[in-house]
């Protein structure tokens, strides 16, 4: 019995969430006194693969099969099922990313495994039970899910578990089982990535703005602040509904749920649906001209005042602090 | 084109989430239930794709009779008929098994779901249905066009998107951008009462998970206010006290 972790990469590079999920899987393997095998699809760069050893993967399986260089969840599920069999893995872990949401349920159904989606802590394994805390009700609550099946699949939320060094020298092995034609129905025609932008679901720092900004032409100062901090930008729902900002920036109950270290909310009132998606942020700063804005009730730091005056000053202060 | 739309029945987005005193169950007393907001998008797109006699839209829900008002709302919005699998939705695999067992031999060209349900929100059911039916599944799409027998979809990824081509039949889970939600009109509301809602008995399926308990987040301490003319102080606090920059 062992633990298997599927590690995503973007154009051959691992992001922070990749090291988080390997660290998390390593901790589970340690809990169960067993080994950890990592699987990487579509990347054979040894130097990059070795990085997974730093976080505790003792074996790294990779496939360079070009049919799998873009994400096809059926084929990826088949490959992971085979890798799990090869590694005799009872537990498969991956990131609760956009792709993970498409892949983990397919794999779980294939393996007859129970799935915990969006874990936020290590499993509790006492009492011959295996229970995992996860986020539920769009961040308004947590549920503790017991997996009743022998095989188990867990997806980990970004920013929920720290990347923890635990260095081993990994055995790096190529693993390329034949791909079934019937698994290749989905064809990725094009991948479009906004360059130089911090990806919102995984961001450690987020600058978010709402209807208080009055119009899309005023987002320059939000981007300046985000750039000074190295933060991702986000917005409230009415802002993306009005087309001021793209949908993928919309956070909240019906948008992206985020849990960065720092969430700065500017000109956002703090409606319950907005708070649902952001309240698990570690630190919340609210800037609002209305001292009665509900957002102040769930904030750590607040400034009452006009965003148009405060935000540029804050950007300057951040730059001064960073010496840029 | 025959489209199946999966729907869940969830607490209204303004609901303050509370649990029974033993923390074992969601406290549904006095809670208004609604059609899951993402399922509204899936339904709206399905109606657009079949408008003008180009096909039919069936909604399916795994749940008890208490969900019927929400199912009627989906019919009022424009679904042609509805199916309710008469059982609590015990967990994601159980739910997906019910939908797959029903859909298996009905010849649906397309199955649409929401990206996730806003209560237990696992985003688990759609890809499980895909696996159980042996058809492609694409999760979290922002655009859906059907060109002949091919779906042309935009799928969300971290920091961008992918354009994906998939042959029918397939299943896709819908996010914002796929369609605008539709509001039922008077005619829709009148006709919803007479549209067929068939109740189907449950198929046996394993239960792989159980919820031990629920918790609500610990409330934050009191907010620390900083004067508007002293932003440098905020930067200092974020560095020395919160340690986030
Ligand atoms: C089904 C449903 C789902 C929803 N899901 C979401 C969701 O996922 N995410 C979400 O965000 N919302 C969601 N909403 C909408 C939500 O209820 C609120 O309407 C929305 O969050 C309000 O956005 P806002 O705070 O930007 O705007 P407003 O509520 O209009 O607030 C603007 C704020 O800006 C402040 N302000 C104005 N001018 C200035 C200035 N010069 N300087 C500083 N402050 C200023 C005002 O004091 C006010 O507090 C949902 C609603 C429904 C019905
Ligand atoms: N009880 C249910 N009956 C039918 N479809 C459901 C049910 N629960 C979830 N779904 C569908 O699956 C999607 C994702 O739900 P979930 O996996 O629960 O996050 C929802 O948006 C629905 O379209």
UniProtKB/TrEMBL annotation, chain A:
Bound cofactor: record note: Binds 1 FAD per dimer.
Gene3D superfamilies (UniProt xref): HUPs, TPP-binding domain
Residues engaged in binding FAD: 211, 267-274, 288
Residues making up the signal peptide according to the UniProt record: none
Alphabetized Pfam families for the sequence: ETF, ETF_alpha
A GO term for molecular function: electron transfer activity
UniProt entry keywords in alphabetical sequence: Electron transport, FAD, Flavoprotein, Transport
Native species: Hufsiella ginkgonis
Protein name: Electron transfer flavoprotein subunit alpha/FixB family protein
Family statement: Belongs to the ETF alpha-subunit/FixB family.
GO process terms (BP): fatty acid beta-oxidation using acyl-CoA dehydrogenase
Cofactor section: FAD
PANTHER family named in the record: ELECTRON TRANSFER FLAVOPROTEIN ALPHA, ELECTRON TRANSFER FLAVOPROTEIN SUBUNIT ALPHA, MITOCHONDRIAL
Transport in keyword set: yes
Stretches assigned to the Electron transfer flavoprotein alpha/beta-subunit N-terminal domain: 3-188
UniProtKB/TrEMBL annotation, chain B:
GO terms assigned for molecular function: electron transfer activity
Electron transport in keyword set: yes
Residue intervals of the Electron transfer flavoprotein alpha/beta-subunit N-terminal domain: 23-209
A UniProt-annotated Pfam family: ETF
SUPFAM superfamilies membership: Adenine nucleotide alpha hydrolases-like
Keyword Repeat appears in the UniProt entry: no
Domain of life: Bacteria
Keyword annotations of the record: Electron transport, Transport
Protein name, per record: Electron transfer flavoprotein beta subunit/FixA family protein
Organism: Hufsiella ginkgonis
């Amino acid at each position: 019995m062992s633990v298997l972790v599927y590690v995503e990469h973007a154009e051959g590079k691992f992001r922070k969430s990749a090291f988080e999920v390997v660290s998390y899987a390593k901790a589970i393997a340690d809990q169960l006194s067993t080994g950890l095998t990592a699987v990487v699809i579509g990347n054979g760069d040894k130097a990059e693969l070795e990085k997974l050893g730093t976080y505790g993967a003792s074996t790294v399986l990779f496939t360079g099969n070009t049919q799998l260089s873009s994400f096809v969840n059926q084929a990826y599920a088949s490959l992971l099922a085979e890798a799990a069999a090869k590694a005799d893995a009872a537990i498969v872990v991956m990131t609760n990313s956009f792709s993970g949401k498409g892949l983990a349920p397919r794999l779980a159904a294939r393996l007859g495994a129970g799935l915990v989606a969006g874990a936020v802590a290590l499993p509790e394994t006492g009492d011959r039970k295996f229970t995992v805390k996860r986020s539920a009700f769009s961040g308004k609550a947590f549920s503790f899910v017991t997996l009743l099946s022998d095989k188990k699949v867990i997806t980990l939320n970004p920013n929920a578990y720290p990347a923890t060094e635990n260095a081993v020298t990994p055995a790096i092995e190529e693993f390329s089982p034949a791909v079934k034609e019937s698994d290749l129905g989905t064809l990725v025609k094009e991948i479009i990535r906004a360059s130089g932008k911090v990806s919102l679901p995984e961001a450690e720092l987020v600058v978010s703005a709402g209807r208080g900004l009055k119009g899309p032409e005023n987002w320059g100062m939000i981007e300046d602040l985000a750039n000074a901090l190295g933060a991702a930008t986000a917005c409230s729902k009415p802002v993306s509904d009005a087309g001021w900002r793209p949908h993928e920036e919309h956070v909240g109950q019906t948008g992206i749920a985020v849990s960065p270290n720092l969430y700065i909310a500017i000109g956002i009132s703090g409606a319950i649906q907005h708070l649902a998606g952001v309240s698990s942020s570690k630190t919340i700063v609210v800037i609002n001209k209305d001292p009665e804005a509900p957002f102040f009730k769930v904030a750590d730091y607040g400034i009452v005042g006009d965003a148009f005056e405060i935000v540029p000053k804050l950007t300057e202060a951040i730059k001064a602090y960073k010496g840029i | 084109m025959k489209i199946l739309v999966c729907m869940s029945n969830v607490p209204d987005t303004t609901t303050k989430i509370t649990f029974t005193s033993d923390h074992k169950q969601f406290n549904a007393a006095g809670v208004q239930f609604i059609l899951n907001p993402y399922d509204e998008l899936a339904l709206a797109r399905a109606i657009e794709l079949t408008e003008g006699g180009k096909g039919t839209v069936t909604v399916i829900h795994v749940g008890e009779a208490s969900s019927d008002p929400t199912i009627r709302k989906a019919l009022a919005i424009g679904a042609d008929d509805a199916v309710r699998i008469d059982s609590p939705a015990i967990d994601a695999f159980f739910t997906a098994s019910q939908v797959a067992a029903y859909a298996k031999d009905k010849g649906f060209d397309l199955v649409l779901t929401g990206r996730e349900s806003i209560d237990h929100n696992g985003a688990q059911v759609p890809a499980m249905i895909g696996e159980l039916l042996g058809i492609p599944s694409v999760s979290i799409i922002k655009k859906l066009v059907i060109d002949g027998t091919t779906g042309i979809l935009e799928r969300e990824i971290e920091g961008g998107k992918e354009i994906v081509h998939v042959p029918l039949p397939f299943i896709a889970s819908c996010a914002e951008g796929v369609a605008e939600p539709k509001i039922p009109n008077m005619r829709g509301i009148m006709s919803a009462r007479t549209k067929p809602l068939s109740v189907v008995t449950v198929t046996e399926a394993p239960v792989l998970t159980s919820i031990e308990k629920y918790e609500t987040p610990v409330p934050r301490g009191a907010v620390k206010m900083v004067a508007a003319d002293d932003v440098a102080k905020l930067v200092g606090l974020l560095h020395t006290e919160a340690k986030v920059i």
